[in-house]
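[Discussion] Sanity-checking designs against the backbone

I'm trying to build intuition for which residues belong where. Below is a structure token string of 152 positions. I'd appreciate it if someone posts a full sequence so I can compare it with mine line by line.
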């Protein structure tokens, strides 16, 4: 997805149904799959779309992500709190960063309705909206803290 995004978007509006389907499939995969490599690939697809929207100011896919935003934010936040490898958590953090930066009020509203959504770690994540690297670090801390709670 990352390598072929420019070629895909060269077709303009004709590419939007494909991108929309990719978002839907990746979202469903994150919600339902128990296979770590499949979850990682789904998170990478969403991260690639979110990154391209931000990097190139591509509004049409941004609106597609916004349309599916609440469900994606909910799914990603729940999955971040599971036992995942670092690369998967980082890809999910990129997507969550996109939503937190582009739609901060809506993202906070969704997270506040979830278990641990109002935790100090989540508040710290939102303080790092200006810096992706720090946001990823806070997301990794949330993941580690959640895994410790699960094992206890």
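Best answer:
Here's mine. Compare freely.
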């Amino acid at each position: 997805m990352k390598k072929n995004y420019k070629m895909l978007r060269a077709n303009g509006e004709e590419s939007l149904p494909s991108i929309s389907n990719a978002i839907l499939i990746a979202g469903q995969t994150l919600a339902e799959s128990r296979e770590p490599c499949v979850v990682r690939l789904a998170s990478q697809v969403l991260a690639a779309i979110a990154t391209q929207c931000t990097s190139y100011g591509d509004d049409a896919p941004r609106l597609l992500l916004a349309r599916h935003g609440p469900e994606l934010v909910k799914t990603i936040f729940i999955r971040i709190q599971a036992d995942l490898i670092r690369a998967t958590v980082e890809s999910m953090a990129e997507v969550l960063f996109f939503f937190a930066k582009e739609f901060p009020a809506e993202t906070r509203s969704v997270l506040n309705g979830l278990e641990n959504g109002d935790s100090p770690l989540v508040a710290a994540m939102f303080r790092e909206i200006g810096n992706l690297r720090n946001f990823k670090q806070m997301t990794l801390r949330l993941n580690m803290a959640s895994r410790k709670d699960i094992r206890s």
